[in-house]
Structures are given as structure tokens and as C-alpha cells.
């Protein structure tokens, strides 16, 4: 017990939209302390709602940068009052929302270096209202950046994304007592970094401001130790002078680290909006989604996809088709066949992000658009359609399902086993659940620990191998992997796609089998994947939906 009380600790911070959070881990990766500051309630003098100020034009959305600074002091004070021993902290790291901006004044680095506990920080910042990820006021500048790069797709190939409002973070600079280098992963969310060379793109820099690279400094690997914690934190809170600051990153890369995604894995967050995190080796940047440098393996990449129509749409269909009962909703999924008899639906109650479409669009097995489905078919149409969309757009960014692929499910809907069963079937991979309520914090703490070991050659996964494992929640039905598929034509004949591995016996069975398979049936016959063919249909139908949605 005495040894545990004196073991090394590692801190992970997350400067999110509505709060500042911290997690402390010991050397065995146990969470020994958690704390937070809620911006609206704990710092009411800044008069934010949801942590932000929405301006009159409805495009400009900012947060007071001094609120973030004060929140950090308040959080550390709360930890000190709780008896937290800062002298045991060997390293710290953190994350900031993507994409937000902080603008330092000239000479701020020298002020940070000599910062005193009673000193006002207002003079450090040239802009006190920092644009946050919700801000859309720089659309004109984004368009100009895209044009300078040779178009939206060309910009995506260079930087990993089409132009979004430029972002960065400043928290590492506060801890370091000087300007902190930007890590590869967060830098690749700024539309300024060439994600393949890991250097600033001269094309993009020239489009924004000549010699901007002199202000940004050289980007660094995400595991880099930036230096020791500043004397301000040593004197005020009792940090050890040997405590190291590991490069901070964006909240999305930090979440990937917190979930410990590996090559071939995909994480699906099922919330108000659905978010998909991907580990990819060979990215294919597209007009939808973001590609970042991977925060835990330097030569790999990660991707992020956002889907606006998530749980609210699932709840609407539950209310409309299942009597507002999740039990009846689940029963409908269990009682309808894999592939839904060829019926496919697109449910974009609100203007969707991925893809940019709106409205409800239903198609029968002959690809004829229809007005409605039966309630049970509608339930499966929604859930299968959502997960087909997640897989389609993931694969367009370069994701591929490989042996050992895992799907990690989080968020409110991950508690529904029948929804997870469909997710497992569509991706033909086991689904695991894990608690990631503090994934960005946890990932930052993991990265702090890894930063101390990276120079000796230890991989991120060597460092976190003893962390709690996710729980298996669903495995693919055999039918999802091996059932035949067929596309109904207008004459009700069946066309099939099959692989070169078919035996002569399978060839004859292909023509003998004419029914869609129900879940749990045992008459699956050959190695044809139902959702692979559905995915091709879904892609064709999505293009039709997009054509209708375009002005």
C-alpha cells in the first residue's frame, strides 16, 4: 500500500466545449483521480451557454480564452483541495477541441516563461474571444484556401480534409511556459499540414500568410516530450521540476488513443450524432470526413466521420413504428431478415453531413422509390441503412475490414444488443463495448505515459497493454458472412455475384436457393457476403438521393 501511495502518476487533460476535465493514472493504468470544471456553472461570470457565445450573425461562435485559463487554475485548485499530490506526476498531456483557435500577442512566450501567480494574463492574447469548432464565420477564407490548393479534393489529398475553420490549441503552452510545438495529429486538423510528409504544406501556408511557418514552428511527433513543466506550476501546485509535458493533441486523436484503436479497428459512437473513428494505413481523403496523422503510430493515419442523424432519428422511428418501446424496436430487428428482403432506406431528418443530403428516401428490392414500409421493415431499414452508410464512407476513406477487425461501440445506443447485432452483421466483425465517457482524457494520460517511454523504442501498445479490455457484445450471424445474396429484377429473377473459390457443388446450390435468410437459420450455403452486395446497391442509391438533394 505504501508503495502504491508513492508510485508515479500521469495526468491527461481535455479542454472540451463545455468543460475542462482531468484524469490521473498510476503506473498500473488505474484511474486514481478524476475532476472537472463546468464552464457555464462554475464560471458564470463569463456568461457562456454550453461553453460558448453565439454571435448575432449565427455564424460566429467563440469562447473567452481567459475562461479556459481560469478553468485550469480552478481545476488544479480543486485537485489540491482534494489532497492530490502533484509531486508524484511524472508526465502530463492533454487535448483541445478541434478546431478552435487561440492568438498570442508578440512577446507572450517571454511572459509565459516568467509568469507569476498574481499576474494578469489578458495581455498574452491578441484576441480574447477564441473561435471554436462550431464557428463558421471563416467560410470565405476556407473557400480561398481550397481555390489556392487546386480545389476541395486536392486540399483533402494534401491536408486530409476539405477546408474547415482553422484550429489549434494552447494548453500545452500554459504548462510549458512558452510556445508549444504543434503535434502531427493536431496539425493535420488545421488544413496546413501535408499529412504524408508531416511538414507544413507550402501551398497552404502561402494561401494563408507568407512565412506563417516561422510563427507555427516545426511540427513534432505526437509522442514528443516538449520540456519540463513551468516554474509557475511547480511553485503554485507543487509539481516536480522533473515533470515532463508531452505534446498535446486534438480531442479526436486523443479519443482514438483512449479507445486504444489498432490497425483494422473501427469505433462507432452512437449518440445524438454518430461519429466513426478509423485506423487506416493508406488513406484516400475524400470530400466528406477528415484524415489525420495517427497519434499513437507515427507512420499510420486515422480518420473521422460525423453523421448528424443518429439517436434522435432512431428515437423517431422507435416512436413511430414500435410504440415508443425499445423492446418492440429490438423485436422488429430480431424478426426481420438479414438484408431486410432487399428494402433499403435513407433517413436524413436533418441536413446530413455525410453525405450532404436531406429527407427520407425508401427503396424496394427493385430500386423503385416507395412512400412507406411496414413498421418492422422500417425499423430494420433505418438501422441497416445507418450502418451501411458508416461502412461505405469508412471504406471510401481507405478503411478495410481485415482478419482481427474489431468494432468498438460507444454512446447511448450501444446498450441495445439488437442494434449492436446489426452493426456486427454489416461490418462482418465482432462488436465490443467500452466505457469511454472520458476517452480524450484517458487517451491523453496514456500518451503522457507513452511519451516517457517512446524515446527508448517502446510502442504505445506496449505501454497500455494492461489497460482494461472492452467487452464482447455481438458476433456476426453466420448468415451475414456466408449467406447468398441476390438482387431481384423486375421479372423476379435473381442475379448473383460469387467468388473464384466456389466449388462445382456451390455453383449448383446457387441456383437452388431462392429465399432470404432469417436470423439464426442454419441453411447458409456458400461464401457470399450479403452486406457486401447490399453496400454496392446502397452506394448507387445514395447517389440518386444526393442528386435529389442538390439545389
From TrEMBL:
InterPro entries named in the record: ATPase_NBD (IPR043129), D-XK_euk (IPR042024), FGGY_C (IPR018485)
Listed Gene3D superfamilies = 3.30.420.40
Keywords, A to Z, come to: ATP-binding, Carbohydrate metabolism, Kinase, Nucleotide-binding, Transferase, Xylose metabolism
Q: Which residues cross the membrane?
A: none
One GO cellular-component annotation of the UniProt record comes to: cytosol
A GO BP term here is: D-xylose metabolic process
> What Enzyme Commission number(s) apply to this enzyme?
2.7.1.17
UniProt GO molecular function:
ATP binding; D-xylulokinase activity
Catalytic activity reported: D-xylulose + ATP = D-xylulose 5-phosphate + ADP + H(+)
Q: Does the keyword RNA-binding apply?
A: no
Report the family membership.
Belongs to the FGGY kinase family.
What does it do? Phosphorylates D-xylulose to produce D-xylulose 5-phosphate, a molecule that may play an important role in the regulation of glucose metabolism and lipogenesis.
Name of protein: Xylulose kinase
Q: What is the lineage of its organism?
A: Eukaryota, Metazoa, Chordata, Craniata, Vertebrata
Amino acid at each position: 500500500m505504501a508503495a502504491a501511495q508513492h508510485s508515479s502518476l500521469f495526468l491527461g487533460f481535455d479542454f472540451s466545449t463545455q468543460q475542462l476535465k482531468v484524469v490521473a493514472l498510476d503506473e498500473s493504468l488505474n484511474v486514481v483521480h478524476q475532476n472537472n470544471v463546468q464552464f457555464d456553472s462554475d464560471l458564470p461570470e463569463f456568461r457562456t451557454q454550453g461553453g460558448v457565445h453565439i454571435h448575432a450573425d449565427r455564424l460566429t461562435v467563440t469562447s473567452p480564452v481567459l475562461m479556459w485559463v481560469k478553468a485550469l487554475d480552478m481545476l488544479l485548485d480543486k485537485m489540491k483541495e482534494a489532497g492530490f499530490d502533484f509531486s508524484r506526476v511524472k508526465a502530463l498531456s492533454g487535448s483541445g477541441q478541434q478546431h478552435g483557435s487561440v492568438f498570442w500577442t508578440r512577446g507572450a512566450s517571454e511572459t509565459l516563461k516568467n509568469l507569476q501567480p498574481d499576474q494578469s494574463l489578458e495581455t498574452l492574447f491578441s484576441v480574447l474571444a477564441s473561435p471554436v469548432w462550431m464557428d463558421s464565420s471563416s467560410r470565405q477564407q476556407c473557400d480561398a484556401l481550397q481555390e489556392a490548393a487546386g480545389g476541395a479534393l486536392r486540399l483533402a489529398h494534401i491536408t486530409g480534409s476539405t477546408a474547415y475553420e482553422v484550429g489549434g490549441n494552447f494548453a500545452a503552452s500554459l504548462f510549458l511556459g512558452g510556445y508549444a510545438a504543434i503535434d502531427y495529429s493536431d496539425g493535420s486538423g488545421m488544413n496546413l499540414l501535408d499529412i504524408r510528409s508531416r511538414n507544413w504544406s507550402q501551398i497552404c501556408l502561402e494561401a494563408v500568410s507568407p512565412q506563417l511557418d516561422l510563427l507555427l514552428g516545426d511540427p513534432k511527433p505526437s509522442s514528443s516530450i516538449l520540456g519540463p513543466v513551468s516554474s509557475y506550476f511547480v511553485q503554485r501546485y507543487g509539481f516536480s521540476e522533473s515533470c515532463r509535458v508531452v505534446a498535446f493533441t486534438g480531442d479526436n486523436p486523443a479519443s482514438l488513443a483512449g479507445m486504444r484503436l489498432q490497425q483494422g479497428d473501427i469505433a462507432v459512437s452512437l449518440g445524438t450524432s454518430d461519429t466513426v473513428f478509423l485506423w487506416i494505413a493508406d488513406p484516400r481523403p475524400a470530400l466528406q470526413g477528415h484524415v489525420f496523422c495517427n497519434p499513437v503510430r507515427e507512420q499510420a493515419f486515422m480518420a473521422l466521420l460525423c453523421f448528424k442523424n443518429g439517436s434522435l432519428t432512431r428515437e423517431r422511428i422507435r416512436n413511430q413504428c414500435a410504440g415508443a418501446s425499445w423492446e418492440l424496436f429490438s423485436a422488429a430487428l430480431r424478426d426481420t431478415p438479414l438484408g431486410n428482403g432487399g428494402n433499403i432506406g435513407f433517413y436524413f431528418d436533418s441536413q446530413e453531413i455525410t453525405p450532404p443530403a436531406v429527407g427520407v428516401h425508401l427503396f424496394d428490392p427493385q430500386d423503385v422509390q416507395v412512400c412507406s414500409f411496414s413498421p418492422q421493415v422500417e425499423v430494420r431499414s433505418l438501422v441497416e441503412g445507418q450502418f451501411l452508410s458508416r461502412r461505405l464512407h469508412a471504406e471510401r476513406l481507405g478503411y478495410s475490414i481485415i482478419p482481427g477487425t474489431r468494432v468498438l461501440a460507444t454512446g447511448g445506443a450501444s446498450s441495445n444488443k439488437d442494434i449492436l447485432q446489426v452493426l456486427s452483421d454489416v461490418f462482418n466483425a465482432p462488436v465490443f463495448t467500452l466505457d469511454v465517457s472520458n476517452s480524450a482524457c484517458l487517451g491523453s494520460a496514456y500518451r503522457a505515459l507513452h511519451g516517457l517511454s517512446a524515446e527508448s523504442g517502446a510502442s504505445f501498445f506496449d505501454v497500455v497493454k494492461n489497460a482494461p479490455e472492452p467487452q464482447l457484445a455481438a458476433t456476426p450471424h453466420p448468415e451475414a458472412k456466408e449467406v447468398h445474396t441476390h438482387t431481384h429484377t423486375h421479372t423476379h429473377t435473381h442475379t448473383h455475384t460469387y467468388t473464384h473459390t466456389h466449388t462445382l457443388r456451390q455453383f449448383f446450390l446457387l441456383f437452388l436457393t431462392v429465399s432470404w435468410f432469417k436470423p439464426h437459420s442454419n441453411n447458409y450455403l456458400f461464401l457470399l457476403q450479403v452486406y457486401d452486395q447490399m453496400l454496392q446497391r446502397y452506394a448507387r442509391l445514395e447517389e440518386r438521393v444526393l442528386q435529389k438533394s442538390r439545389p
